[in-house]
Design goal:
The structure is a single chain. This protein is an alpha+beta fold. The chain has one domain (13-79). It is 42% helix and 18% strand. The protein is built from three helices and three strands, in the order ααββαβ. It has a three-stranded antiparallel sheet with strand order 2-1-3.
Length: 88
């Protein structure tokens, strides 16, 4: 199920556009997760504007993304060497 934002208080148009962009990035990451995981095992990834930035640390991946998109907060995640299975 895709992530959906729910508006509970007044939000500026700028904030709303940022939230929508973050949601689009997350949904894009979900759709491309297999190929990204294969290419980035054991690394950190940062995603902004449907673009992946890879680093050996959280900070490195985040800095690469912020260097290109300073106005955005990237989604950063560690890609483990072995797949994780979650049972709900």
């Amino acid at each position: 199920m895709p992530l959906r934002l729910i508006r509970t208080e007044r939000t500026s148009e700028e904030d709303l556009q940022r939230f929508k962009a973050d949601q689009e990035d997350f949904e894009w990451l979900v759709r491309h997760s297999r190929e990204i995981e294969e290419q980035s095992k054991g690394k950190y990834i940062a995603v902004v504007n449907k673009e992946v930035f890879v680093g050996d640390s959280f900070e490195e991946a985040e800095q690469k993304a912020k260097a290109k998109y300073p106005e955005r907060d990237p989604y950063v995640e560690f890609i483990p060497l072995k797949p994780r299975v979650m049972v709900l």
